[in-house]
Amino acid sequence: MAHNILIIIAIFTTITAATAGRLITTTSTTNSSSDIVNDGVHGGSGGVLRLNPFLSLSSSTDESGICEQTYGFLPCTTTVFGNLFLILVYGYLMFIAATYLSAGSELMLEILGPGIVGGLFLPVLGALPDAMLILVSGLSGSPETAQDQVSVGMGLLAGSTVMLLTVIWGTCIIVGKCDLQNSIAIDNQDTKGFNLIGSGVSTDIWTSYSAMIMAVSLLPFIVVQFPQIMHSTSGRHVAVLIGLIVTISLLIAYCIYQVYQPNIQKRRIAFAKHKHVRSRILNYLKTNAYEGFLDDKGHPNREVLFRLFNSVDVNGDKHLSQAELRALVVGMQLNDINLNEDDAVLKVMKDFDTSGNDEIDFEEFVSGITKWIEEAKSTILASHVSGPDTTNYFHDYYEETKREHYLLGDEGGDHDEENGVNDPQWTTIKALLFLLLGTIVAALFADPLVDAVGGFSSATNIPSFFISFIVLPIATNSSESVSAIIFASRKKQRSASLTFSELYGSATMNNLLCLSVFLALVYVRGLTWDFTSEVLVIVIVCIVMGVFGSLRTTFPLWTCFIAFVLYPFSLVLVYILDYWYGWS
Fold first, then answer.
1. Measuring CA to CA, which residue among 148, 328, 85, 158 is closest to residue 320?
2. For the segment 392-421, what is each residue's pLDDT rounded down to a tens digit?
3. Torsion angle (degrees, nearest 10) of CA 51, 53, 58, 64
4. In the record, which residues are listed under signal peptide (predicted)?
5. What is the pairing mode between strands 48-51 and 178-181?
6. Which of 64, 57, 50, 54 minimizes the C-alpha distance to 78?
7. How far is CA 409 from CA 390, 406, 433, in A?
8. With 70 as the cut, is the pLDDT of residue 335 above it?
């Protein structure tokens, strides 16, 4: 942290010590061009000073041709390389701000856990640098100036989403790939190299839910774009207001979901474990039944069940106690699902003990087994049964519950989590300092970065949208991207799930938080919403990757090429629609 602070101070001192000026060269030839300046010595009869024609290309200047300094003291320039240098410097400072915000958020997560921090603060702080850049792009100057600069904000909004879901998504597939077996990636096993079909990444079902939510978050774009879809010139300002209300509503709903999602996930995993225990018990009873487990009508064979009941009833008192059920559960060796054996026994007892006396008699045992069998039949709809007395679907039910538990992402205690924080007080102070410093740096240098992008755009005649689309996301999302790639390289289903969930979540926050800031700017300042091609790119990429991520949990290596192709496709599509067909 101290090292980065010194870097910030050094950069700030360097750029503030610089002066705005223009490079000049001497020549003995007079010229009426505006590039010629009197040298103040020869009185125009001797030599003149000529502005370098390459480095003096126009930038964001006032009517006198002099650039305006941000905050009245930060340097500005009208040259190509000068603006490029400022973009690199301010971009690096925004990268440091994003790094501080990320570090502070992670420390807060260690102290307070998920819930409010993981569900509300982390997503908001992760999108804060982008939101600030979007905000300052439409705040400065007159409405006409803001209308020109707001394309920088739209470029950042589109570029961040597209980069995360294409370049970073595809890279995470490559670095996180493992061998695929039965359409499931085997943790820490990567022996097939770059096999497009035989290697890939597996995620849990919660990652698929994140992809679905990301696709739903596109709704505000469709709302605000509705007048353009209907080719109507009226009602656009109202559509922006409605879109803003929808965006804020979805943002609140998403944050609430994130807050309660850990509890939902725990309950789903607990239920899946209980189903897995039931399927294992059915499998165990079927395996140990030397005669038909079911009669001709498909009902449990009472004689067989009676012998099985007695085999579990160790003390012979015609009742199964919790200790005897526990011995049964322990004997099945359910180590692969990180099972709390006492909790499992209590849930089995609850399923069977209808009398409430903490014991199971034979009739309760038969009734409970019958209920489990009927559930297994209803779960496996496509079972290849040949008759009512077959038990083939027991194995299908067991495999189904095993896969369901796997998809929920519970890995039997391999969670890479810290046991606790050694010094909570100091960690809290450190986290707050990181968050404060990151916020200050992002707020301070967002505006000059937008000005530098505008200056570079004017100096090179490259539309500011494309500059902000390509360059700014690298600065604001680089820390998040590097973290995702490193985490994916652990080559585990859990790390892959967290990585892709983070990418989908970041795109969702771009579509909600950053868009809400953008729409608020457009509505309050009376700007024109005219970003049809940009919105189309965001919608296409989010729908393709959202549907792709929600319909499957395993991604072979070949899927990364779909993501990579979408990035240049987005740039080409915007260029064609804006400059060939006049969409804007």
1. 328
2. 566 666 666 666 656 665 554 444 444 455
3. 30
4. 1-20
5. unpaired
6. 57
7. 32, 5, 34
8. no
